[in-house]
Amino acid sequence: MKKSLFTLALAFAFVFSAFANDPAYESAMKKQIQAMKTIQNPEQSQAVVNGFLRIAEVKNTEWLPIYYAAYLQTIAAFRFEVNKDQYFDQAMELINKADKVAPNNSEITALKGFIIMGKLSVDPMSRGQEMSPLAMQTFGKSIALDKENPRATTLMAQMELGMAQFFGSGVEKACGLARVGLELFAKEEAKINEDYLLPTWGKREAEQVLSACK
Predict the structure, then answer these.
(1) How many Å is the Cα radius of gyration of the chain?
(2) Which InterPro entries match (predicted)?
(3) Is residue 95 in some structural domain?
(4) Do the beta carbons of residue 149 and residue 143 sit within 8 Å?
(5) In this predicted structure, what is the pLDDT of residue 133?
(6) What is the DSSP string of the chain?
(7) 53, 105, 131, 188: which one has the fewest Cβ atoms less than 10 Å from its Cβ?
(8) Structural domain for 160, as ranges
């Protein structure tokens, strides 16, 4: 009986190890992450999104492929002349799927707040009262889940700056958050190597917020 249990434990350990170190998954993710850097139009963006979604179909226990697909839809909405509401809605649908795969994940929560902020930017006059508090609450949750997440702090800084500019108030809080964000990015950069698959975006946004403090 003990021998059978030992054999079963070894089998589980082997399976876990195989899934934890999947060269095909890692290679596919690296290829798509690299492709993200070459996007110049909505069509190219959608092609990379589709690539991430194909990976997500195969590795349905991984949150990162769906996360990156949601991120690209969000960035495309900000960057290109597209139906912004439609893109943000698609991004929200994707990030909600990622949330089911990995609940209470700071990165997923931060991106969810970013999408809400995008929806708000489409029509701030009519959406501000509902969406501004929701975005702030979502960024606050992301920071609470991981105080070392530079994107959570940076997005909160962006939101604070936007609100300060809208209401004509001081930008001190936004500037303080941006400085913390840049400190966190410096810590994160020390961990990044060629095998790093986790999100690294956001430093430019923190620098943009800080530029409004001069």
Answers:
(1) 19
(2) TPR-like_helical_dom_sf
(3) yes
(4) yes
(5) 96
(6) -HHHHHHHHHHHHHHHHHHHS-HHHHHHHHHHHHHHTT--SHHHHHHHHHHHHHHHHH-TT-SHHHHHHHHHHHHHHHHSSS-HHHHHHHHHHHHHHHHHHSTT-HHHHHHHHHHHHHHHHHSHHHHHHHHHHHHHHHHHHHHHH-TT-HHHHHHHHHHHHHHHHHHT---HHHHHHHHHHHHHHHHHHTT--TT--S----HHHHHHHHHTT-
(7) 53
(8) 130-214
Q: Does one domain contain both 98 and 140?
A: no
Residue 14: predicted pLDDT = 37
Q: Nearest-CA neighbor of 153 among 106, 103, 194?
A: 106
Q: Judge if 213 and 146 occupy the same domain.
A: yes
Residue 29 lies in a domain: no
pTM of the model: 0.89
Q: Which of 193, 155, 197 is nearest to 177 (CA)?
A: 155
Same domain? For 67 and 136 the reply is no
On whether both 140 and 81 belong to a single domain, the answer is no
Say if 23 falls within a structural domain: no
Indicate whether 98 and 134 sit together in one domain: no
User: Which residue is listed with tokens 């697909």?
Assistant: 69
- Angle, nearest 10°, between helix axes 64-79 and 42-58? 170
Residue 12: per-residue pLDDT: 37
Here the tokens at position 114 are 């970013």
